[in-house]
Amino acid sequence: MAKRTRTRTATDRAQYSVEAEWTGADLALLEELKRAEALLPDDAPRALLSVRLSVLTDDTTSPVRQELDLRKLALDRGSRVVGVASDLNVSATKVPPWKRKELGDWLNNRAPEFDEILFWKLDRFVRRLSDLSTMIDWCLKYGKNLVSKNDSIDLTTTAGKIMVTIIGGIAEIEAANTSTRVASLWNYVKTQTDWLVGKPAYGYETAENEDGRVVLVIDQDAYRALHWCRNAAMRPKPASARRMAKVLVRAGLCGPGLTTSTMLRRLRNPALMGYRVEEEKNGGVRRSKMVLGSDAQPIRVADPIFTEEEFESLQKALDRRAKNQPTRRPGGATKFLGVLICHDCRSNMTVQKNRVNGRSYSYLRCGKCKAGGHGAPNPDEIYGKLVGDVLRVLGDEPVMTREYRQGADARKELQRLEQSISYYMTGLEPGGRFTKTRFTKEKAEKTLDDLIKQLEAIDPESTKDRWVAVHNGKTFRQHWEEGGIEAIAADLLRVGVKCVIKRSKVKGVRAPRIHMKLVIPKDVRDRLIMKEDDFAEAF
User: Fold this and answer.
1) Which H or E run includes 406?
2) What is the chain's percent helix, strand, coil content, to nearest 5?
3) CA 423, CA 426: separation in Å to the nearest integer?
4) Residue-level pLDDT at 496
5) pLDDT the model gives residue 392
6) Regarding beta strands 498-506 and 277-282, do their DSSP bridges make them parallel or antiparallel, or are they unpaired?
7) What is the mean pLDDT of the chain?
8) Per DSSP, what are the bridge partners of residue 359?
9) Are 200 and 216 in contact (CB under 8 A)?
10) What is the signed CA dihedral for 175, 180, 184, 190, rounded to 10 degrees?
């Protein structure tokens, strides 16, 4: 019998917690660097610091050290730090820069605010050659530079571009080797009776026995919950999965987030018989199936919660109550999910389908009102009314697209004009080079007037890197007629437009009366601006 000492997660015996802890010395150095940074000229290059870490151990570079080293690098380069994109506990192999929470926001929405991206080492930034190539293309398009403290990277030179590609290839090879080792480990542990790695199925938890080995033991609270559910399902009048979930949550045996689908998935898991399982996804439906060993027999990894007879009888009882629901559509049954909301509970309206006596019925219902708020029949009629209201209110709005404009050329022209004006003003002072004859003085004064007019004609905004909204020649009515309902739904969800559905009973009529109210944000015109996804092809 295994001796239970302490429970913990199965993936790692030494759980890590990614925390950026600043010591007093670190904070003092940070203030010193900021004071030195404040002395830089106003036109100093603007640096964004990218700090990333997947696992914090004694061998890794802490986020604090990365930031301080990068601030020193920025100061040495004469750059002013305008922000720190800190993405901790994020894998560079799985999450590219533009998908990270903080760095992704800078890349997608705040590009005009910085001129270069500084990172500690290339593998702290990317680990895939394709991601690196995408970032190089993005930087060249927007006039940005990539700078690494510990690698020879500088996109302003041809040699720097070649070097960054070579280093990125090495980083991708290293990541691929790590992925191969992990996949090999998982394939190995699936065939073992010992519990080596992985998250236990519901009903079990990990513990150490006398030999210090990790084993699976039965979670007593889960054991009670599962056996109560089986007894409830085997009654002459069986309880529904929804009822089971409510009772378990109220009893404190399960968390408040327990759903009916999760409840059923737990009860149908073969792991409850103590066998090793793996998850299988089919059309969006998640199911666990047993893993067979080399002898074509199930692999037992723990004591069973249910015997095979108990498990089979439970499955038959669940099958008797199961509804033969229509297969899910790949795009979802509700066409305006997230736009249609309930007036009473403010939850999303979703399409429910029932089949009675061979006929299929569809209706919209909410998630929190009792009985779904009695539903709203004829979803297609509601969709049509919503589309009509949206076209009437927003259909004539022009389609504006966001474009990036660099101010480098305008800044150069501004600097040239200012230097030229200063040159002629100095020459026109008493004793200056243009005051020796009347002819040279008049010519210089005319040239100076022309230069001043050119300077005044330059829009100060044009000297800044900025986003501008440009009309693409279409209205949203034309745009939506080309894209269909899917385009309307996507734009309404993006903009934050809501349609509130209110249902009221009608005496003597089963179907309720439907009232619809379109809720449009005040800044809808700004929200409607289309933003090009620079990284769409990279997914």
Assistant:
1) none
2) 45, 20, 35
3) 5
4) 94
5) 94
6) unpaired
7) 82
8) 356
9) yes
10) 70
| Domain 204-321 CATH class label | alpha beta
Task: Output b/e per residue, 284-312; b: 16+ Cβ within 10 A.
Answer: eeeebeebeeeeeebbebbebbbeeebbe
Q: Poorest-confidence range of 138-147, 347-356, 391-400?
A: 347-356
- Does the domain spanning 24-178 belong to CATH 3.40.50.1390? yes
Q: Are 291 and 335 in contact (CB under 8 A)?
A: no
Consecutive H or E run containing 23: none
What is the structure's pLDDT at 17? 38
Q: For residue range 278-289, list pLDDT tens digits in order.
A: 776 665 556 777
Predicted pLDDT at 13? 33
**Would you say the C-alpha torsion 100, 102, 108, 111 has a positive or negative sign?**
negative
Q: Which long-range contacts (CB under 8 A, 24 or more apart) does 389-396 make?
A: 389/499, 389/516, 389/518, 390/488, 390/492, 390/497, 390/518, 391/477, 391/480, 393/518, 393/520, 394/476, 394/497, 394/520, 394/524, 394/528, 395/475, 395/476, 395/477, 395/480, 396/475, 396/476, 396/477
| Domain extent listing, the chain | 24-178, 204-321, 340-397+469-538, 407-464
pLDDT band at 495 (very low <50, low <70, confident <90, very high): very high
- Residue in the structure block whose two tokens are 């890197």: 465
